[in-house]
Amino acid sequence: MGWVPRRLFDSLNFVVFPPGDTAVKKSIAFWALSGLLAVTGCASQQQLVGQKEDLLAAAGFQIRIADSPHRLAAMRSLPPNKFVTKVVNGQPLYLYADPLVCRCVYFGNQQNWAAYRQEVLAKQLADEAQMTALMYQSEWDWGPWGWP
């Protein structure tokens, strides 16, 4: 019986397993689904927004609290939890309004935006690595080690 490579995910390399081995396929699908649910399904809207805001702060975006009626009205004029780009003095300015968690607006320039995109990519890579580790953990033969 030969081994047949099958594509698991676009972002992962080829995984090799015997044809007809449904136990391995089911195990991989189970762990992939479990990881996906752990990352997204169990998180509330506030948690997801909070994670994004952590990345914004790490990228250097400035936080301005909507602490006056004028600022509150300006924040409410922006789409909630979405990026808006404005051009100020010929330079792009990125705004992110959060009426739910902090009642604030994040302001950033082109450098902050690039740093944020890098932070998002790093988080995605870390999440994929964690999911891959979980998938391969089930394939490990613990028997000789006397564990699970």
Architecture overview:
It is a single chain. Mean pLDDT is 77; it is low at 1-19. By secondary structure, the protein is of the alpha+beta class. It has helices at 22-41, 45-58, 69-76, 110-137; strands at residues 4-6, 15-17, 62-65, 83-88, 91-98, 104-108. Helix 1 packs antiparallel against helix 4. It has one domain. The longest helix has 28 residues, at 110-137. A hairpin with a 2-residue loop joins strand 4 (83-88) and strand 5. The protein starts with a strand and ends in an 11-residue tail after the last helix. Strands 3-6-5-4 form a four-stranded antiparallel beta sheet, sandwiched between helices. A two-stranded antiparallel sheet has the order 1-2.
Q: Calculate the terminal CA-CA distance, rounded to whole Å.
A: 29 Å
Q: What value does the average pLDDT take? A: 77
What is the overall shape?
elongated
- Tally of distinct domains: 1
Helix content: 40-55%
Instruction: Report strand order across the widest sheet.
Output: 3-6-5-4
Question: Would you count the extended β strands for me?
Answer: 6
Rg from alpha-carbon coordinates: 22 Å
Largest sheet: 4 strands, antiparallel
- What class would the helix/strand composition place it in? alpha+beta
- What would you call the quaternary organization? single chain
Strand content: 15-25%
The poorly predicted ranges are: 1-19
